[in-house]
Protein: MSHA biogenesis protein MshK
Amino acid sequence: MLLTTSIQAETLRDPTRPGHGAIVIASTTTDNENQLVLNSVLKSGSASYAVINNKILSVGDRIQGVKITAINVSSVSLSDGRNLAMYQAITETKEN
Structure:
């Protein structure tokens, strides 16, 4: 009886696996992995720090090969022309 149970368990298919004939595509780097997110800005007197992707940085530091050129109260300017904002602007409204 025990032998029969183990054989039945081996023949059961895992329902979370892709079906037979499914094509598996290797994952590539997504935009989210390369996206810079401004988490916080800390200003104290003349010292300014930005927390980007959970890393504390200051003017002149580099993250993902891009240099931080300025740290403002709610934004950070980068050498490639991008400006990271602390709070993203709301561009859409929900219609009632």
User: Anything to note?
Assistant: The domain at 35-86 is CATH 2.30.30 (SH3 type barrels.). The longest strand covers residues 38-44. The mean pLDDT is 80. The helical segments are 2-11, 31-34.
